[in-house]
Amino acid sequence: MKIVLAVFVILAFVSGTALSITLDEAIKRATDGSYLLKEQKEVVESYRFSYISTIDPYLPKVDIQSSYIRSLNSKNSVSSYSSFSSASDAGSSRDAYTFAGSISYRIFDGGERYAKRKGSYSLLEREKERYKGIRQDVLYSIKSAFYTALGSRLIVEKRREAFDTAEKIYKLTLARYQEGITKKSDVLQAEVRMTTARIDVERSEKEYEKALEDLKSLIFMKAEETADVDGPLKKPDYRADYESLAERAIREKPEIMTQEKEIERLNMAYAEKRSAWFPRIDAELQQTRQDKRFFPEGRSDSFMINFTFPLFDGVGRYYNMQGALSDVNAARQRFEETKRIVRLDIIKAIKDYELALANVNLYRELAREATTTFNQLLGEYRVGKGDILNLLQSEKDLASAKENEVDALYKANVALSYLEKVAYIYDK
Question: Three-class SS of residue 220?
């Protein structure tokens, strides 16, 4: 019976244990389950199939044709479609069966096939770069949510510590009041601070729960599943250099590469429009059979070279080409604007990151000073020399300093994550 009870207690403990979510686990879950990434993968596949299909114009074209002709006006009208071996057959037949087969190949098209194929390839590469950009956004979102949740959890711990300290001061003040050393007002003030600290704890717990729900949503966990973030919250040690980051981003960032591929595609669209000014040359080998039988035997073989060039078909060729050229020029301007925005985003992200690091140092120093001040005032209060108001204010300042230190730490990590996003620092 004792063994069964022990097993039941162990199972209950295990089932009630929250899942610990590390940053690596969160990133893996988010990237594996992201609907945006899955959607873009399908888009890439669609363009890949389209690119494969552009090989068709380079291949020969094989056609077969079969037809049945029935003369409705006269018996011998079919002879105008047929080459029968017998004149009597031609005079007596009102029916003709035709079978034709041909093999054709386009020898020259002014570069149209090449332009379409290269343009399709540029589209495929553009969507691949967009996939990288979407993945970049997903990584930033999950890192930001993770560090926010981790910071919120540590703030809960700091506020619980503040509540424990406020409770100790209250109990100390109450004991001294019962001994007749302090006034009733001191006890009430200590109790107010303790109650305020308890309210702060409850508020921080709800904030942590909301931050955790954001994280769980991004990693596709159900709301009823229990989880907790796990991992160290350290001060980042990355040192940012604007010149090297900007140079690397201009060379590799998905937004830049996407626009570059778009320019390539539009150049090929322009080449495709320009090909309308060139002739088309086709070669064709054809065999035709036609007579009155269902399986015709009258055979005619031919080889043709077709040369086609529109001398005049309106003004569309010229203006279509000019429109395509304007699209190329517009894309080049967008490309330069994209590079300007990327450089600006990087320098602003570096400034925010450096400020976040400075805040960490300042709040750490402030927490050390607040700890020293509080310990000194608490020691004086224990021996009856200090004032309760000064002690409570010092304890409140210490709690705020510790909380601000945690807040600065998680914001510094979020700032680094944003810098990684805008400067494309992720490993490939």
Answer: coil
Contact 270, 112 (CB under 8 A): no
Q: What is the pLDDT of residues 181-225, one digit of tens each?
A: 888 998 999 999 999 999 999 999 999 999 999 999 999 998 888
Tokens of 164: 């424990």
From CA 39, how far away is CA 27, in angstroms rounded? Answer: 18
Token reading at 319: 């203006």
Residue 310 has a pLDDT of 87
The residues near 313 (Cβ < 8 Å, ≥ 6 apart) are none
CA distances from 161 to 134, 156, 303 (A): 41, 9, 94
Per-residue pLDDT at 209: 94
Distance CA(425)–CA(213), nearest Å, equals 28
For 56, the token pair is: 């068709």
Write down the pLDDT at residue 108: 92
Please check whether residue 277 is in contact with residue 324, taking contact to mean a CB–CB distance below 8 angstroms: no
Residue 95 and residue 68 in contact, taking contact as beta carbons nearer than 8 Å: yes
Please name the helix (run of DSSP H) or strand (run of DSSP E) that holds residue 92, with its range, or none: helix 87-92
For residues 179 and 379, give the distance between their C-alpha atoms in angstroms, rounded to a whole number.
Answer: 18
Q: Which CATH superfamily is domain 18-60+111-280+316-423 in?
A: Outer membrane efflux proteins (OEP) (1.20.1600.10)
Which two tokens mark 205?
A: 């717990």
Residues with Cβ within 8 Å of residue 231, at least 6 apart in sequence = 22, 23, 146, 150
Residues 6 or more apart whose Cβ sits within 8 Å of residue 201:
156, 159, 160, 162, 163
pTM: 0.84
Low pLDDT (below 50) residues in the chain: 1-16, 79-91, 428
- The ranges assigned to domains in the chain are 18-60+111-280+316-423
For the record, the structure tokens of 34 come out as 């992201």
Tell me the DSSP string of 233-273: ---------HHHHHHHHHHH-HHHHHHHHHHHHHHHHHHHH
In 17-57, which residue ranges form alpha helices assigned H by DSSP? 23-33, 35-53
